[in-house]
Amino acid sequence: MSNSEKTFAAKSDEDIKIAKDEKRSLFGKKYRSIYGDQLICLCALLIMAVWRWGLRALVICGASVIVSIIADRLFCKMTGKTYNPKDLSTVVSGMCLGLLMPATVEYGYIIFGAALAMGIKHIFGGKNNYIFNPACVSYAFLAICWPSQVLMFPKIGDQIPVFGSFTGTLYSGLESYLVRLGTAQEMSASDIFMGNFLGPIGTTHVLILTVCGICLICRRALSPTVTLVTFAAFTAGTFLFPMYDNVNASIVIELICGNILFGLIFLANDPQTLPHSFLGKIYYGIVIGVLLVFFRHLTSTESSFVYVLLIANAVSLHIDLFADKTIVVIKNTFKWLKNSSGSFERVRKEAQNGEKNSLGDTQEIIVPLLNYNMPAVDNKIIKASKKPPKIVRDKNNLPVRKENKQENKESFLSGLRKNLHTKNISAAAKPEDKKSVKTPRPIKQPRKNDNNKNGKND
Is the pLDDT of residue 404 over 60? Predict the structure, then answer.
């Protein structure tokens, strides 16, 4: 096979693989359709960010998406894969990373973060193979290395130039006051729903996020199991261990800060990192909700949802395996209960009706079936198809084996073949055989009357 033929075969195999990947689905929908629905909701959040922060927010998200597409194409070329322009997961990762940034972040950091996200994606094999959400890994790296660029925010209403650095004052976010001081400022319901508090450009619009979550659930592009279980676990943990005295206000403040709503809708429901089974999704939501409570109370880390999600992504496969084992145990338990309770109820009804119990005890003993390579016993009498052999005795009254017709027939045929064989040999090798020559029989002469028979003479 020539090099051109090999290249064509490799490209055709890659195209077939891409076509198979497009057929993969979650909640009965294709991955491309899921990412398309998420991208529409992200665009709605971008419109709100542009309305609040101006064109700076549009440039940040646009730069993140463009760099993600270019980096994805370059990494595909470096790894020998075919770039799929219909892969919307790259665009969604770039949009999520841009909306997680403050409006004052410098463009160099967002460009580096987008390239890093695509590098993380291709380290684990590219599309449909990555373990960790690329936007989460990139955001966590930027927040650890440059917290002043990622975790500091301008005041609402500050004018931020599209190109150039911001010269005003930056402040810590709402989550920083909560985890470090154990308190937060009081806000009205309108300020909460409209997102009038410090935070990234796309994660503070609570009303838009709520509407996006409901639309994605209706479009089957978001797992309601993971979302509701995580929300219930985190709310229950916050209710039991509130950050300050006002429990209701503590639940609301802890829920809207720290990118929890945004991350729960767009990052935790990435179809590439979600468990596949229903019970696995329940465990997945419980793990995220419980770890969020622990991070809030035991650490002073901001944007704790990102780190919690990375831990949950790392154990997602093991959660699926544990869920499968749990399902087997549950089935065996229900089967045992069904058999045990059924026999007990039968004996109890027989006793109430005055019938004679089939067992002396009140509980039937169920013996597991064992395979001894023996036919099943059904208590039926089967008549023998053959009669017993007849005993033949000789003159001395001793048993003699009686030959059957088949043996006689076989012996007759074997004797016939033997005779034919010997005749052929005798005809070829012994032409003058004595048995083959017929000798005349002697003729007996009649006796004469002998007068001197008794030795007397006349």
Answer: no
